[in-house]
Amino acid sequence: MQHPAGLPDIFLDRSLGRKGVPDRLRAAGLRVVTLAEHYGVPADEDVADEAWLELVAQHNWIAFMKDRRVRTREGWAVNLHAVRCFCLHPSQGLKVQAMADRFLDNLVAIRSACIRPGPFFYHVQANGIRPQRLPS
């Protein structure tokens, strides 16, 4: 499989790990940049969410994460920079393979959502993606 046409490159937040999920997404042909790859290790642990959200917008990437608090805590930055976010629900306790599969299983819906400009925030679920309201 190749990176689907019309799907922006994907930035992975630290909440998805440095190796397992990125490696599985790349094995499926996706173009992925991790927070650790962009900022370096151990600097990646100190990068504020606001900083990487701005980076994602500057590069016209989309963000994959498992930290749903970004929507409420840094919703202002998602709005300000018009970031396009896709988030797994952390309480589901998904393992690495299941996290990667959840994104891969929803690629058609994710790509369709990316036709629209940001800002937006979707929860990625087993049976599709669901838009979440961003704070104003």
Report strand order across the widest sheet: 2-1-3-4-5-6
Approximate helicity band: 25-40%
Q: Over the alpha carbons, how many angstroms does the gyration radius reach? A: 13 Å
Whole-number count of domains: 1
How many β-strands, per DSSP?
6
Low-confidence stretches: none
Largest pleated sheet: 6 strands, mixed
Which strand-content bin applies to the residues? 15-25%
Task: Give the CA-based shape.
Answer: globular
**Element-level helix/strand string:** EHEHHEHHEHHEE
Q: Structural class given helices, strands, pairing?
A: alpha/beta
Cα-to-Cα separation, first versus last residue: 38 Å
Mean pLDDT over the residues:
94
Total helical elements: 7
How would you portray this structure in words?
The structure is a single chain. With 136 residues, the protein is α/β, with parallel strands linked by helices. Helix 1 crosses helix 6. The longest helix has 10 residues.
Key features of this structure:
globular; six-stranded mixed beta sheet; alpha/beta; 136 residues
Short recap of the structure:
This protein is α/β, with parallel strands linked by helices. It has helices at residues 20-27, 35-39, 49-58, 69-73, 75-81, 96-105, 107-113, and strands at 10-12, 32-34, 62-65, 84-87, 120-125, 128-132.
What is the secondary structure topology, with strand pairs?
Blueprint: E1 10-12, H1 20-27, E2 32-34, H2 35-39, H3 49-58, E3 62-65, H4 69-73, H5 75-81, E4 84-87, H6 96-105, H7 107-113, E5 120-125, E6 128-132
Parallel strand pairs: 1-2, 1-3, 3-4, 4-5
Antiparallel strand pairs: 5-6
